[in-house]
Amino acid sequence: MLVFFSYTCNLLKPRSLSPLPFTSIMLMSQSTSIPKKQDRVRDHGFDNYMEVEKKTRKVLKFQSLILSRPSQTLPISRFDSLARRLGLGFKENEAAAYLLKFPHVFEIYEHPVLRILFCRLTQKALLQIEQEKHALHAQLPDAVTRLRKLVMMSNTGRLRLEHVRIARKEFGLPDDFEYSVILKYPEFFRLFDARDTRNKYIEIVERDPELAICAIEKVREREYREKGLDAEDVRFSFLVNFPPGFKIGKYYRIAVWKWQRVPYWSPYENLSGYDLRSLEALKRMEKRAVATIHELLSLTVEKKISLERIAHFRMAMNLPKKLKDFLLQHQGIFYVSTRGNYGKLHTVFLREAYRKGELTEPNDLYLARRKLGELVLLSCRKAKVDKELVSYRRDTEVDDIVCVRPDYMETDLKDFGVEYEIEHDEEGKDSLDSDFVSDDIDETEDLDEKEDTV
Known about the structure:
By secondary structure, the protein is mainly alpha-helical. It has helices at 2-12, 19-29, 44-67, 79-86, 94-99, 123-138, 140-152, 161-166, 177-182, 215-227, 231-234, 250-260, 279-298, 307-312, 323-328, 364-377, and strands at residues 74-75, 106-110, 117-121, 158-160, 189-193, 200-204, 304-306, 334-337, 347-350, 354-355, 358-359. The strands form four sheets. It has a three-stranded antiparallel β-sheet. The chain is globular. It starts with a helix and ends in a 77-residue tail after the last helix.
């Protein structure tokens, strides 16, 4: 009787929870086995890429100012006021001095009549714009396919026209894509105005099953055929390549291995008939978000896009609210760089598409845009600029420029793919229409999004 009484008292005593069961319960309650909080590890290859992009972005703004003039020239005294209007952060007389840093892009000369300093683009800069224009037109059929796939990824088969317009440069769409792409192909797209929001939307006319194939599926097939990996391990996996210095422990490696085998729904699949309230559905939806961002980056020309632009598609594609934390959770697949706009801009790269800071499978449009970066990086010491900035003329220029990056930039102008000469002072020229200049949208215009999106 005494033994039975002591056993009953032990059962009624409150048991203290040990750390091990509590940890197990917390792990099971998570929607994924990968730890949520991850410190961002820098990858200098991507960060150096964005440092060049930061300089190129300012150069593009000055280029657009010059090309917007009928004579494609602008007095030096006007640059300070125009730079302050654009919010470029220059102080007084700094904008004009900034142009001297890039003598292979901007040419400063004395006007023969007004006897004041003017600025115009160099011949190499004009040829680079011409090459980008030709590359943009040549890949227009591929851009139509990319836009079809982008709209098909949305839940309702429609996207806001304004969101696509802001990201048109990333997807290789021309400035007038509303007319040259959407209205030109009525068999693919439908443009309509929403009554409740008064916004224009792009709607897909018919879903093509042949286009509903993700880029990661082709990568898995190639990995399976070339490396002979286990079919069960490759079936739902992603290419994971952690940045240098990322600490991978034993348990984290196991968690990643388990996550790789979790099945998920395709970004192109309609989920209206599924019950998304279970724990298994949450796991699949989280991995589907990774596949959606992966496919979104695969559709871009340079396999990169700003985080603020991804946030525009968050509601239409069922992406999580805190996108930055979500992407840092998968640093082996994506890389988030804060370089390029003083930490105010977050650029997301697809890691598997780059090697040592360069695109592994470059396209013509990417190469044309990179050549502008090469012009920016060329040493100004080799440029024949007179101290008084009045004798820098193209007709007496000797082409003895030493290239910093000979992989993309050659000293011969014929390598730009344009054989004819371009006159600077010719007014009303149609071949250099400003509509085909690289996008000059202020990268900070998207920072008005709500903080919970990033």
